[in-house]
Design goal:
The chain has a single domain, classed as [2Fe-2S]-binding domain (DNA polymerase, domain 1). Helix content is 37%, strand content 8%. It contains five helices and three strands; from the N terminus they run H-E-E-E-H-H-H-H. A three-stranded antiparallel β-sheet has the order 2-1-3, with helices on one face. Strand 1 and strand 2 form a beta hairpin. The radius of gyration is 14 Å and the shape is globular.
């Protein structure tokens, strides 16, 4: 699976293995700019495509606006789901459409947080979509 290739072969360990069944979103990456669950994606099917993990989101020392918003709004607690949440949120806000809190909740419903930082995650996404 792409998740295993990223973590084991490329040593990009920011992408997390949560449920390993595509139900929690911890393994979310971007493939050609779209959110994808790397635990359900065959690595061979991703050959030649642009894959972005949490490690590739910032530009050097400059955090992506979604990352900055997550820090500002304390949108994480244990941090395990945070890379997947940020990757899903980044794909969500890239179209620059202003979404309501309910629309954001629906769009992010595939990303679970055991610590229940959802209110902070929504606030961070709302700020990022305004940026």
């Amino acid at each position: 699976m792409l998740l295993d290739a990223l973590r084991e072969q490329l040593h990009l360990t920011g992408t997390k293995k949560g449920c390993d069944h595509g139900q929690c979103g911890a393994c979310t990456v971007h493939i050609d700019g779209q959110s994808a669950l790397s635990c359900l994606t065959l690595a061979v099917m991703s050959e030649g495509r642009a894959i972005t993990t949490i490690e590739g989101l910032a530009r050097g020392e400059e955090l992506h606006p979604v990352q900055e918003a997550f820090v500002k709004h304390d949108a994480f607690q244990c941090g395990y789901c945070t890379p997947g949440q940020i990757m899903a949120a980044t794909a969500l806000v890239q179209d620059r459409q202003q979404r309501s809190a309910a629309e954001i909740r629906e769009a992010m419903s595939g990303n679970l947080c055991r610590c229940a930082a959802y209110a902070n995650i929504i606030a961070a996404i709302q700020e990022a979509q305004r940026a």
